[in-house]
Amino acid sequence: LITDGADILDIGGESSRPGAVPVSLDEELSRVIPVIEALAGEGACVSVDTRHAPVMVAAMAAGATIINDITALEGDPQSLEIVAPSKASVVLMHMQGDPRTMQEAPVYTDVVAETGAYLLTRIRACQQAGIATERIAIDPGIGFGKSQEHNLDLLRGLSAFTGLECPVVLGVSRKSFIGRLSGEDVPDRRLAGSLAAGLAGVARGASILRVHDVLETRQALDVWVALK
Ligand code: 8Y4
C-alpha cells in the first residue's frame, strides 16, 4: 500500500459490517497490535480503526498516531480521556445507530445538517477535553446508518463539512451505494465507481480518502490535481 502511494495505513480488528458479530477485546488486540507494531516499526503512519479505549491505548503504545473511531469517541466512556493527553490525532465519524442495526431504517429530516451538527458537537467535546483542533478530522460516515438517498445527499453536500475547520475524511471505496448506482453486486468490481465518488468528494473538499485501491486512487488524483 505504501509503495502504491498510501500516506496512512488504517488497521482494524473488528468488522463494522451491518450485522457483524462483535469480537472480544483480547481478539481485537491480538489482531491489530502485532500489525501496528510491525508497520510503525517500518516507519509507516498508522491509524487504528477501533471504538475501544483499551485498544486505543495499546495501539498508541505500538506506534499508531491516529485514532479512527466510527463512534467519534462516544463508543467507550474512557476514549476521550485516553486520547486527550496523548499526541494522537483523531478521526470523528458520524454514524446513526450501531453497526448491528444501523441499516434497518435510518431516518433524518436533513441528513447534511444533522450530520454536520453532530460532528460539531463531537469537535467541541474533543476541544473541551484538551484535543487541539489541529488533531481533529471529521467524516460523514458514508453507509453508516444511511439510506441510498442519505449517502447521495451527503456526497452532494459534502462542502458543508469543510466549514467546520477540520480536514474532511471520506470513505466511499467499494461501498454498497456504488453497487446500487451501478448494479454491481461484487464489491471488488466497484473500482471505477469508487474512483468517481472519491474524486467527486475531493472536488467538494475532502482531503483524506480511505480506499482499498491505492495505486488507482493515486493515479486518478494525480491527473485530477494536474488538470484543476
Ligand atoms: C464494501 C467495501 C462494502 C467496504 C462496505 C465497505 C469508514 C471507516 C469503514 C469510513 C472512516 C467499509 C472503518 C466500512 N468505513 N472509517 N471504516 N470512514 N473514518 N465498508 O467511511 O469499508 S469500514
List keywords for this structure.
228 residues, 5-stranded parallel β-sheet, two-stranded parallel ribbon, 40% helix, 12% strand, globular
The SS-based structural class is alpha/beta
Q: Which value, in Å, is the CA radius of gyration? A: 17 Å
Distance between the termini: 26 Å
Can you write the helix and strand succession as a string? EHEHEHEHEHEHHEH
Q: If strands are numbered along the chain, what order do they take across the biggest sheet?
A: 1-2-3-4-5
3D shape? globular
The portion of residues forming beta strands comes to 5-15%
Which secondary structure elements does this structure contain, and how are they paired or packed?
Elements: E1 9-12, H1 25-41, E2 46-49, H2 53-61, E3 66-69, H3 79-83, E4 89-93, H4 111-128, E5 136-139, H5 148-156, E6 168-170, H6 176-182, H7 191-203, E7 206-209, H8 214-226
Parallel strand pairs: 1-2, 2-3, 3-4, 4-5, 6-7
Helix pairs in contact: 1-2, 7-8
The chain binds ligand 8Y4.
Describe the structure.
With 228 residues, the chain is of the alpha/beta class. The chain is 40% helix and 12% strand. The chain contains eight helices and seven strands; from the N terminus they run E-H-E-H-E-H-E-H-E-H-E-H-H-E-H. A five-stranded parallel β-sheet has the order 1-2-3-4-5, with helices on one face. 39% of the residues are buried. Residues 12, 16, 49, 68, 70, 91, 93, 139, 141-142, 169, 171, 174-176, 187, 210 line the site of ligand 8Y4. Ligand 8Y4 is lined by residues 12, 16, 49, 68, 70, 91, 93, 139, 141-142, 169, 171, 174-176, 187, 210.
